[in-house]
Amino acid sequence: MLYLVRVSGKLVASCLCGIFIMSALFVSSCNNADKIPDVSAIKVEMRTQNLEQDLAMLDTNNLAAGLVQLRNKYPDFLNFYLDTLMGFSIHNNYSDTTSGIRLGLRLFLTNKDYRGLFDTVAKYYPNTKDVDAKLESGFKFVKYYYPDYKVPEVIYLVSGLNNWGAFTFGREIVGVGLDMFLGGQYPFYRSVGLPDYLNPHLCRAYIPVAVFSTVYQGQHPFMTGDRPLLDMMIQKGKEQYFLHKVLPHVDDTTLFGYNGNQLEWCNNSEAMIYNFFATRNLFYEKEFDKIMRYVNDGPNSTGMPAQSPGNIGTWLGYKIVNAYMQQHPKLTMQELLASKDDAQAFLEASKYKPR
């Protein structure tokens, strides 16, 4: 099964996915540093490939021969990339005369705007060694908690600003769209409709978060349906708990996708945030249109001050989950993530008390 996760964090299932202030960084880094296990002895063999570089080097006057070679290098993934991700509809017919190549791939590789995008990615990511190192570290922590976990291959690519940040292809491959991590000030993000509040998600430092979020969601997809907000908060909180454990050296601004002012506001307003939901009975609201801003990215959270971040339910959910684990110190992360506790019972068992 393939799980596709766009950079905005929305999950789509298919049958085949900063900026910070020093005080907030110091607090969050100290919190993340508690009881970090030693994973130095854990061996990880993480294979990476750069499809974006291979595509950029193709001879556009003889794409058929180049695609045959790429198919040998990316046997299952190439056709998925060409047909499903990019929508060229080549369907393994690599003749230079087919419309999918003439009107799709060739234009993608020769159009000045897309060539400019490839050139920008090449300049910003002449290599991915620093990203590889952070991903390898994260996979070591995953294997610490899940010894039988098979580390996937990582394939870097360009999707033409189609908003594919990180996604999984089966359980063997994680794709990373480098064109979605060029920094929030990259001018063409605005031209494709990406709002400013997603800037923290569009930087190099966010790649490990995007990757391990999609790894997590492949096993624990976010469920909405007829569920109350509290249930969704706890789901999101468990995902954040996982991210904090496998990326313990990443600061909270990056993990939550907030800017530093938003994180500082959350840390200073914890009691008010909890009381906002409690006094309005929002914990038990099921109408998604009323609660979606609290568990999805947005400019801020409806009904709260302008300095509040969107997706504040994830932050509060993490606080509740963390309190729950403090009350149950013998519970493993595997047991936590596999549990299907009623949300209200989970909150009560956490004995969470907002500061």
In short:
The chain is of the alpha/beta class and 355 residues long.
Summarize the structure in words.
With 355 residues, the protein is an alpha/beta fold. It has a domain at 229-350. It has 17 helices and six strands. A six-stranded mixed β-sheet has the order 2-1-5-6-4-3. It is globular, with a radius of gyration of 21 Å. Residues 1-33 have low confidence and may be disordered.
Helix and strand arrangement:
Blueprint: E1 2-5, E2 11-14, H1 22-32, E3 48-50, H2 51-56, H3 63-73, H4 77-85, H5 99-110, H6 112-124, H7 129-145, E4 153-157, E5 166-169, E6 173-177, H8 188-191, H9 207-219, H10 229-246, H11 252-256, H12 260-268, H13 270-279, H14 288-295, H15 312-327, H16 333-338, H17 343-350
Parallel strand pairs: 3-4, 4-6
Antiparallel strand pairs: 1-2, 1-5, 5-6
Index terms:
single chain; 355 residues; alpha/beta; six-stranded mixed β-sheet; 17 helices; 50% helix; globular; disordered N terminus
Distance between the termini: 42 Å
Number of DSSP helical runs: 17
User: SSE order in H/E notation?
Assistant: EEHEHHHHHHEEEHHHHHHHHHH
**Strand proportion:** 5-15%
Q: Approximately how much helix is present in the residues?
A: 40-55%
Radius of gyration: 21 Å
Which consecutive residue ranges, at least 5 long each, have pLDDT under 50? 1-33
Overall average pLDDT = 90
Largest beta sheet: strand ordering:
2-1-5-6-4-3
Overall morphology: globular
Mind summarizing the main beta sheet?
Answer: 6 strands, mixed
